[in-house]
Design brief:
seven-stranded mixed β-sheet; about 35% helix; single chain; 7 strands; 5 helices
Length: about 160
C-alpha cells in the first residue's frame, strides 16, 4: 500500500504518462518522470504547467497548489533514477516486447518491494510480468484518458501477482 509520501515513477511522458504523473502528484506523491525520447519529459512538464495555469486562472486551483504539485514532479534521465521508487507505472507504446524489455530492465534497478505496473489497455499483464524474475509484484493499472479528468483506474492482476494493494 502506498503512503501519501510514496515515490511514484512514471515511464512515458505522452498524454497518458504525463496525465498519470499529474494525478499522482496531485495526490501528494513525489513523481519521477522518464521518457526515452530526449526532451519529451521536460515538454510534458511544461504542458502540465500550462494546463494547471488555466485551472488557476479559472479559480479551480490556487497558485500555491499548482506550485506544490509541479514541484513534486522531477524529470529523470534514465531508468536508474527509479531506484528509490515505491511504485513504477509504465505508460509507453502498446508493443509487448517494448514493455517486457522495460520491465526486465526496471527489475535490475528498483528495490525488491517496488510494485511494477503497466498502464496497458490491450496487452496481457501476465505476459508483461513473464519478463520479470519476480513477476509476483507486477500489476496492471489502467488509467482512462485523460487521466486528470477521469477518476477511474482499473487494477488488473497478472496470474503471478501477489502484491497487496
Amino acid at each position: 500500500m502506498l503512503s501519501e509520501k510514496s515515490i511514484v515513477g512514471v515511464i512515458g511522458a505522452g498524454a497518458m504518462g504525463s496525465g498519470i504523473a499529474q494525478v499522482a502528484a496531485a495526490a501528494g506523491h513525489q513523481i519521477f518522470l522518464f521518457d526515452a525520447k530526449e526532451g519529451a519529459a521536460h515538454s510534458a512538464v511544461k504542458k502540465t504547467e500550462a494546463s494547471l495555469t488555466k485551472l488557476v486562472e479559472k479559480g479551480k486551483m490556487s497558485a500555491d497548489e499548482m506550485a506544490a504539485l509541479c514541484k513534486r514532479i522531477t524529470v529523470i534521465d534514465s531508468l536508474n533514477g527509479f531506484s528509490s521508487a515505491d511504485l513504477v507505472i509504465e505508460a509507453v507504446v502498446e508493443i509487448l516486447e517494448v514493455k517486457k524489455e522495460i520491465f526486465s530492465a526496471l527489475e535490475k534497478v528498483v528495490s525488491p518491494t517496488c510494485i511494477l505496473a503497466s498502464n496497458t489497455s490491450s496487452l496481457s499483464v501476465t505476459s508483461v510480468a513473464a519478463a520479470c524474475n519476480h513477476p509476483e509484484r507486477v500489476i496492471g493499472l489502467h488509467f482512462f484518458n485523460p487521466a486528470p479528468l477521469m477518476p477511474l483506474v482499473e487494477v488488473i492482476p497478472a496470474l503471478q501477482t501477489k502484491v497487496g494493494l
